[in-house]
Amino acid sequence: MTVSNKDREKPKVENKCKHDPSQWRSSNQLNPTICTVMLGRKTESDVRQAMEHFSQIGQCQCGKKVILCKFCPLSGDKLAGRLPKNCGQRTPNPIIFDNRATKNAIESHSNGAYHRYWKSIHDRMVSEGPIDLTEPLNDFPDCSSGSPSILESEISFPSPNSELFMNYSNQLQPFSESPMEEMIHDEHTSRCEQSGSVGMSPSNESQWLDGSVSESKNPTPNQEVESAEDAWFEMQAKVLREKNMKTAADIAWKSFSMDSTPVNGSARTSAHTGDHSYASDPTKILPSINLENDYMSFVKLHGLTNGWPDFVFQEDFIKPSLSEVVAYAKKHKHLPGVIPEKYINEGDFSCQREIASVLQYVEMLVLWAKELSDGNKLLEEQIDRFKKAHSTGDEKELMMKISRLLSNIVTKRCIQQLQLSRPQGGELLQWMRENGLICFARVFAKNGLHSLEHVANLDQQDCENLTVSLETLGSIGKRIELQIAVQNLQGDIRAKDMNFRLHRFSDCKIPLWSAWSSAAAVEILLTKFYVQIPLVFLGVFLVLRTLFAFASVCMPSYFRIASQHAPATMVMITDWPLHLVEGLLWLVTVYEARMKCPMAARNVALFNLKLTTYHLYLQTLLEVKDVMSSCSAQTCRWDGSRGEGLVQDLLVLPAISLISFGCSNLQPRLLLFLMIIGCYLLAVIAPIYWNLDRFKALLNVGVGAALLLMCASCKCFEWVVMKNQRKQQEEQVQLYKREWGSQVEIEGNKELIARLKYDADRINNVITEQYRSCFASATRTGNWRFRSLFAEPVGRFSFQGKVRQCTRDFGHLFSEASSINDHFHEFMSELLQKKFCGGIGLSKAAMRDDKKLRERLESLQSASMLGEVRVDGCDKMLFVRGPIKQPARAIQKCVRVYGRDSGCLTDLVRATVIVESLAQVEEILSFLERSSIVGVNRTLKELSEEAVRENADEVVFFRMTRVKNYFEDDRTDSDANLTLKMLSINLEIGWIFENDKCMVLPVEDWDLKTAETHICELQVHLLPLFDKHQEMMKFVIENRKALAR
Fold first, then answer.
1. Which DSSP symbol is given to 797?
2. Within 10 Å of residue 670's Cβ, how many Cβ atoms?
3. pLDDT digits (tens, 9 = 90+) for 850-884
4. pTM confidence score
5. CA-to-CA distance for 848 and 868, rounded, in angstroms?
6. What is the C-alpha separation between 668 and 670, in angstroms, rounded?
7. Residue 92, phi then psi, degrees to nearest 5
8. Taking CA atoms, which of 404, 519, 545, 676 is between 20 and 30 Å from 81?
9. Are 444 and 455 in contact (CB under 8 A)?
């Protein structure tokens, strides 16, 4: 070996791990899965070769990854034949020296992965020639269980990327085997003695990796060097063998201590001495306190003859738990029963009482220590049972059970995260259940696949990588099922972009009689075939009429049509082209509704209605002009044909204008407009035409009667359906009303309801004034009512007066909700906890021992167990973390209620607070009002002036954009039979992310730090009504489905 080679080899030798396996933090026996994941073996031959050559792979306490081979490359001795699967135990390994092992044998071992300890010995022996036998062995690492080689960069192994693998390793860390008495066997010992007594013989053969005996292929040519090698190996083997035998026979040897071992100080002392029993004597647990000498002499000196806390050791004494005492001390800053500092200053102090109290805690400390000792003994018994299972060969089954349990826990957490924190997580879980792929929940959550849109983009290679990332998912069948499901997902609307889904959404299944109350009434009507057929006939009629009129004037001889007088030039320029365009647009509307999406059909239809209205106005003006020109100054005669056309246009103009305005801006009131038009046809147009044209009069009568009959039928159908629904729900409605009536009858609640109504109306009035001011500034006339007639938002307000989100992009809205959902819940829970629960951690449910309360919260507990919600509780309230509104329901609400204005969706992120009384509801509303700016146009300066007048010192974190008080008994905007009593508050919150941490900012910092904002919903419920509220919500959903069937 040259000098340059030595220089390159030196840092690798110094970088090797110098610890034996007893000091490894974790170790795993090699299996095919670990060969694939940790060693990067791909083919079956590589895996088989690694299984033959290597025994274990782990990580030492020094942070280096190490690997242990089965056979020594020099001696052929089995290094890990009996080594346990977990770490923390050393195995004696006497060396059978063999001077015929060469450098070629070492470097060819396991494809380059060899023991650098043995290689350093061989290289040093070859390079230095004769070896000084007196040289100490401390320069070399300990080889008591076979020297572990550090994994160098050229054969680096990736860290495990499987949570199951890491959990498996972590579960093994606390368990360390006892010293080596059961690992030493007579056969091994005799082999050591034989190798030490017989010495080295030239005819000895070296065992190779597979255990076979082979001749050395590269003997040393120099006889002197060969004898020096024999002497040096014999010397090193003798020293190491004696050291190993001493280690095996030393009962004071202990394994590498782990931090997670739950033992006390006495237990650690006993571990050093070899005694594994845990003492329960108080003098050993508390060595600094001598109860017999110190305290008894103190009692006799001061004459304390009564109040001595001997009752602590009585059997009927109920000792408080240590956690309760700690919680009390954390809250009150002193122990229970011990006099606080302020009372000492006031002179209320009794030395006898305080000494007795202190001694009582000393005695209870003995009992708590005894409980800890018993717990440690129980843990020891569990460890012994685990060791027994390990020694009898049942560890494989036990570890499989542990792995399955850990896998189920992690999977449940991933499912809960998808349900609560991901907008499309519910759809993803539903798709996995439909295809039998729920086992991939962990894999999808780990790789950031939180929606079907992300899953649909996976290719075949991605599916294979996801399948092999977990040991339990390595079957080819699951991989094929995943690939087929992903391929079938390509045409699913749930896998598309959120904006695309909103654009292509169709409510075609809603019946005609219930479509009139929807903000998408025009879209629903255009999807009905009995509406499409008349539109097709109308379009064809307008096109053919225009072509016929054009042909009769321009080419009468070609079509053999009698020549007619040419109409006015303006009529040919405007009337004919517009009629042709209108007919074509009606045909395009039907095509869009049937072949593409109702939204596109609605846009075409609304444009065509506006064009028809403008055309009618233009035609009326032309008719007036023609009539005026026909009346000369000398002879003013009435032209019947022209006058009849003018009258017809004037009569039709109001109806067309009304239907065009209603379809464009007030679709939920479209049925009312149709009723007005029907009355107009019957009461106005029909009598006018009765003497002029009897046919047109009868036609108007028929159309008007049909419109009125259709309106009456729709209302009757809706009334019948809702009556049947109420009949099924009557019993539950009466129970709900009775429970609410009992709450109203409580003394003082009527005054609280009146104050809540006043506060909610005051807040809403401020927002309404801002809305009117905003809409008035958008018109030249300054009249907000005129501007609100058009269904277009102005600034942050919709045309209905609701404060909208800052963004109108539907996909970005869900992205914001996913980012802030968990942080909003955490912030609100902490804020309300600090204000109303005294800062105590939310660990106990309110009135946890109340049996009636547990029955009331049974539905909430069931939802929490299923992972649908998360509940935080304290002594005064419950905070329920609700899931993000799912896309299907959000799209329905956006289309049916807000006319596709996605900015009006303010309940994507929602939470619920459950309190015991109406007084707490008022307190929460007052607190949130002090912590908010009401509306979107008020400045912080105005709020600070009000805060000074009210002496408020709350930090302003929100903008309060709406308060809906359902506790009113005189509400008129909802059905009285289904009014659910609660308080709904919309709060806008602002945040930024710094170093991957979400920071909720006060309102004054939103513009300065360019914070993202989102409006969230907080609902406040009464505890006595909450169980009934859950039942009533089911009825509300059923009513909604009944109207949509």
1. B
2. 20
3. 555 555 566 666 666 555 667 777 767 888 888 88
4. 0.59
5. 21
6. 6
7. -65, 140
8. 404
9. yes
